[in-house]
Design a protein that fits this description.
The complex is a heterodimer. Chain A is an alpha+beta fold. Chain A is built from 4 helices and 6 strands; from the N terminus they run βββααβββαα. Chain A has one domain: Folate-binding fold, CATH 3.30.2270. Classes of the chains: A alpha+beta, B alpha+beta.
């Protein structure tokens, strides 16, 4: 039974007061270019998810509190939450740098873009 | 046998000899003393036999001293208060206690099932898997009932549990698990920092084994120190002591469950209304695990006979309860600690000899034993036990480590054995949530290594057995919480004195003469009857992984969760394979540490509190009218109103015909209602519905379909445009909460730039359907301040105004195919308007109708119901509603998935109507259509019935079905085999059975 913290309303509670919403930062291709979504892109969007051992990024909803969705960074081995951040935000920079595997690939461009700006 | 042959003349720190207690065991009236456990009281009466084992039905007695007890499982109480499978060593005696032994028939001393033991060479490890394989049809009627009948343990209570149970949620700074010397020292130093401390112990008294462990603190017996600490902790405001409370599990982020047996020990408390059990759900910042250690049995031939106990248990019998385990005993050990038992027995005047497997025994305790005149045989093992219902003699053989078989033996008469194979730290809670462990060569056992959560193990649980070390370690652990506290207080540690013990020597198997599994069983797991031979057989058969061996032999899988058997099993496997124990690995420890009651899990959430019920404003009227209720989600909706002299079939038909020919009134308040408001509301609806809503004119209604992202139908309903930026969405009754949350999710996570509010308003409105050819007349009679004419208020339009004086929103929409108005008024006025409608409609013949009539009416019209005609893999095209899937909109939820090739295949199941050849045959819901009827399954299935009713309008049965390629098969006749070998044949037709043109709703 995890302890979850809502970054929107500040509520802290058992995970049963929240709702886990699966992997974070999944891009919906049809929102951006509805006419050019390949079968493969649609399949990946619907079904292909990261399953890292270690640092992971996921979506949660403050079910019994403010009702808002937010993001969380969690270690899947120790179950420790590393950060809670807004639903439209990227994780803290140091966590993007710590990410491994598919997440590292995903955050590489984001880190570059952040460095430029 | 004399009246109390085993109660010693004196001694017994726990019992009060002035207070006699009467109880019954297997119907026999017996006496004990206040402070006795069931185990000590029954043994004091001269009985050693407590039960029969699970598989072989072998006679069994008490082995342990607390929760590790695996043999003496007892049922307590009768009728609805009966509780099975309790450990006799933990049952506190009270006046009137009724206890029964388990797994025996017809009696404990003579048991038919014990024949299993005689044929045991034919039921080796993995027996179930090998024997009951085939023929497969034997499983249901022969094998399973046979196994279930033979398998033991107690029976469930009868009737409803009369007692109360509680759940409590608590946060604390420190939870100390176990109230022995280590736990008390840790709690004391943690409490001194000002931390909020909970100290839980599964026993009625704190102190753990302090009373039987010898040694002293500050020159006084350990018990004096314990008493002092318990009273000061009890007085401290920041400390909560929980005796009789087992910490049953540890989960993520230091979440723990504590099972408190609050009133089991005293029926007077129950009578006063106290809860029987309490389940504490604790979130602790820090856990200090002081759960102690559990003594290991030794695997020698017939080591399960009644009268063979753990050395610590035998010692506790004498010292705590003044009960002698026998007259003449053998202490069989591989360590120094058991010599304390020998000394205690000797001091109590009981005959005792020591058999020590080690080549050299020379610790301080050993010397004390020798000095006391106790015979000590080193390099020796117990190689055989004689006696069946008890021990009559043992044979003792010379032994060298690694030796597999004995050649010469000598016989010694005795009537009990106290065995000790060393101690295992109780690691269960450490491991429940992923704590790592390491093997300790000195202990020949595992001890804690690392843990991801803030958990610290101290004392014996950490493999620390010397008294001074235990106190120092526990006190330091308690102080650690001071890092977060302002108040730092150093506790003065007592000076510990104790006999120094020499190391033990591992003994996983004591050899015997002859083939050791024939009449000579070396038990590892007593509760599941797993022997050394079973484990070795599994090894030979190729079960290399210890997890596989565990499942194949069932070792460690009984209700005791392998407390006494796990490590011994690993030791046997280590000997058998030549691998070290760490190489063999450990099996997984899972909660609970000991079984706990379902009542404590449920707490107060039973009966009416089990599930909240949602009621519409008209609920009481329905109930008064004698309605049958149907659960729809958490709602209770009126199913039909059956009057005097009517059956349900009759009332449903009457309600349907009233709607078709006169007028009906339905309570549709449960219908999901969501207000969607904001400048981007129309565009948002275009995203979530398959069809277009931005083109809907203000004051108009439109039926909409919703898909999920996979392209499958998820909900449907009519949405009304109340204003330019303001819509009211109707959803299915069961889908209202889900759809509102789903809309919010899209707004918050995907189209975050939309300015839209989503507000569920289902319960704010009472809503009724007035349907039938005379519907408009009812509205006219009520008096409306808006135009009621067909031209002024056509089908699929909306009006807001006053009706019979009530403020209303009226939607001209129809789920019955008749002229129909859905009237919504604020919930508080619902009952008033309902009555007004009934009064106004009286002379027009208005009749209330329920959900079954509603469903038949819609089926006659071929309208789908999400969840009936769809099953989560059904697309709009499958149900023939492709016309509602927009081709103009660039993007909406599910659009791209619907274009995937696999949703366009030719063999998709499509919605069709069915007319049975025999009009009175009503197809069962879910009946399968088969390609070809055969004598017996399997038959190839090509689809299934989704809705099926008798239609009083058409005076025949009708059905809808999803059939492979169904629309291309119009006119074809399909076969539906149903129960009893009958086959119903039905013709595929259009799913709209009545008024195909939709003329009736449009007048």
């Amino acid at each position: 039974m995890l302890v979850v913290h809502c970054p929107v309303c500040g509520a802290e509670g058992d995970e049963t007061d929240f709702h886990g919403g699966g992997q974070a930062h999944v891009r919906r291709p049809a929102t951006h270019d509805p006419v050019n979504v390949s079968d493969e892109a649609q399949r990946d969007y619907l079904f292909i998810r990261h399953n890292p051992k270690g640092l992971h990024f996921e979506r949660w909803r403050c079910d019994r509190g403010c009702g808002k969705w937010f993001h969380a960074a969690r270690d899947t081995v120790t179950m420790e939450f590393k950060a809670f951040y807004g639903i439209t935000e990227l994780p803290p920079r140091e966590l993007m740098e710590q990410a491994t595997g598919e997440w590292a690939t995903y955050f590489k461009d984001k880190l570059k873009a952040e460095a430029k700006s | 046998m004399s009246n109390k042959p085993y109660r010693l003349a004196q001694g017994g720190s726990r019992i009060d000899r002035t207070k006699k207690v009467h109880f019954s065991f297997d119907g026999k009236q017996l006496n004990g003393f206040a402070g006795d456990t069931l185990a000590s009281a029954v043994m004091a009466n001269g009985t050693k036999l407590f039960g029969r084992s699970f598989k072989y039905h072998r006679p069994r007695g008490v082995v342990g001293l607390g929760s590790e007890e695996m043999n003496a499982l007892i049922g307590v109480g009768d009728g609805s208060r009966h509780e099975p499978n309790l450990r006799a060593t933990q049952i506190e005696l009270f006046d009137g206690l009724q206890a029964v032994s388990q797994n025996r028939w017809p009696s404990l001393a003579f048991d038919v099932g014990s024949l299993n033991s005689k044929v045991s060479r034919f039921i080796p490890g993995g027996f179930y898997y090998k024997t009951f394989m085939w023929p497969q049809r034997f499983w249901k009627h022969v094998y399973e009932p046979l196994i279930r009948k033979a398998a033991g343990l107690g029976h469930a209570p009868e009737g409803r549990d009369p007692d109360a149970y509680e759940n409590i949620h608590v946060h604390c700074d420190v939870l100390v698990v176990g109230g022995g010397v280590a736990g008390l020292a840790a709690a004391e130093s943690a409490a001194a920092t000002g931390a909020r401390v909970i100290l839980a112990d599964e026993n009625p008294q704190f102190g753990g084994l302090a009373d039987i462990a010898g040694g002293s603190l500050d020159g006084k017996p350990q018990t004096a120190w314990v008493a002092e600490k318990v009273s000061s902790l009890a007085a401290a405001e920041n400390v909560h002591l929980l005796p009789r409370t087992t910490v049953v599990g540890h989960w993520h982020h230091n979440y723990l469950m504590l099972f408190e047996r609050a009133a089991d020990h005293d029926p007077a408390l129950l009578r006063e209304g106290a809860p029987r059990h309490r389940l504490w759900k604790v979130r602790a910042k820090q856990v200090i695990l002081a759960s102690g250690a559990i003594e290991r049995p030794i695997a020698f031939a017939n080591n399960d006979r009644p009268g063979i106990m753990l050395a610590s248990a035998a010692r506790a019998m004498v010292e705590r309860y003044g009960v002698s385990p026998g007259v003449e005993g053998i202490v069989f050990t591989n360590n120094d600690d058991a010599y304390q038992t020998a000394l205690v027995l000797k001091a109590a005047g009981i005959g005792v000899r020591v058999v020590d497997s080690r080549g050299r025994a020379e610790g301080a305790l050993v010397e004390k034993a020798r000095a006391a005149g106790i015979e000590v045989a080193v390099s020796s093992v117990v190689s055989a036990v004689e006696g069946n219902l008890g021990v009559t003699a043992v044979r003792v053989a010379a032994y060298r480590k690694g030796q597999g078989r004995v050649i010469t033996e000598r016989k010694i008469s005795c009537d009990f054995i106290a065995m000790s194979g060393g101690f295992n730290p109780a690691l269960h809670l450490w491991c429940h949530n992923g704590g790592k462990i390491k093997f300790d060569d000195g202990l020949q056992s595992f001890r804690p290594d690392r843990h991801q959560d803030p958990v610290t193990a101290v004392g014996a649980a950490n493999g620390t057995f010397a008294l001074a070390d235990i106190i120092a370690e526990a006190s330091t652990a308690g102080e650690m919480v001071a890092k977060r506290k302002t108040k730092a207080a150093k506790v003065k540690l007592p000076k510990a004195e104790q006999d120094v013990q020499k190391p033990l020597e591992a003994l996983w198997f004591a050899p015997a003469t002859g083939k050791y599994n024939e009449g000579n069983k070396h038990f590892i797991d007593f509760q599941n009857d797993v022997t050394v031979a079973d484990l070795e057989l599994a090894q030979r058969e190729g079960y290399e992984s210890v997890e596989h061996t565990k499942r194949y032999t069932t070792f460690g899988m009984a209700t005791d969760q392998g407390k006494t058997s796990n490590l011994n099993g690993l030791g046997v496997l280590s000997d058998a394979t030549g691998k070290s124990i760490p190489e063999i690995g450990v099996t997984t420890f899972r909660p609970p540490y000991t079984p706990f009651s379902f009542g404590s899990i449920a707490g107060v959430l039973t009966k009416n509190l089990f599930l909240p019920i949602r009621r519409t404003p008209i609920y009481q009227w329905h109930a008064d009218k004698g309605a049958t209720f149907e659960p729809v989600g958490q709602w209770r909706r009126a199913y039909t109103y059956t009057g005097p002299g009517e059956d349900k079939h009759g009332s449903i038909n009457r309600e349907i015909l009233a709607v078709r020919h006169k007028v009906g009134l339905l309570d549709a308040s449960t219908l999901g209602k969501i207000e969607i408001k904001g400048p981007d509301a129309a565009e948002f609806l275009d995203r979530v519905y398959t069809n277009m809503f931005s083109t809907l004119k203000v004051g108009k209604c439109r039926y909409g379909l919703m898909m999920n992202e996979l392209g499958f139908l998820t909900d449907d309903g009519v949405t009304v445009r109340l204003g330019e930026d303001h819509f009211l969405m109707h959803t299915t009754s069961g889908g209202a909460d889900r759809i509102a949350a789903w809309l919010e999710e899209w707004l918050q996570t995907e189209w975050t730039h939309y300015k839209v509010f989503v507000t569920p308003v289902t319960e704010q409105w009472a809503q009724f359907a007035i349907a039938g050819p005379r519907a408009r007349n009812v509205l006219a009679k009520l008096g409306a301040d808006f135009d009621l004419s067909h031209d002024g208020f056509p089908h699929m339009s909306f009006k807001e105004g006053k009706l019979g004086g009530y403020p209303v929103r009226v939607y001209r929409i129809s789920f019955s195919g008749e002229q129909s108005y859905e009237v919504a008024t604020p919930a508080s006025m619902g009952r008033g308007l309902w009555n007004a409608i009934l009064d106004a409609g009286k002379e027009l013949g208005i009749e209330p109708y329920g959900t079954e009539a509603l469903h038949v009416l819609r089926a006659e019209k071929g309208f789908i119901v999400i969840g009936d005609e769809t099953d989560g893999t059904t697309t709009p095209i499958d149900v023939g509603l492709d016309g509602l899937v927009s081709k103009k909109k660039a993007d909406f939820i599910g659009k791209r998935s619907l274009e995937q090739s696999y949703l366009k295949g030719p063999d998709r199941k499509q919605l069709v109507g069915l007319l049975t050849e025999e009009p009175t045959d009503v197809l069962p819901d879910g009946a399968y259509a088969v390609k070809q009827v055969k004598d017996k399954p399997p038959m190839e299935m090509i689809g299934q019935v989704t809705s099926s009713y008798h239609s009083p309008t058409l005076e025949r049965s009708i059905a809808m079905a999803l059939i492979q390629n169904g629309r291309a098969r119009m006119g074809e006749t399909l076969s539906f085999p149903i129960e009893g070998g009958k086959v119903i044949r039905a013709k595929i037709v259009d799913p709209v059975f009545y008024d195909k043109e939709g003329a009736r709703q449009n007048v």
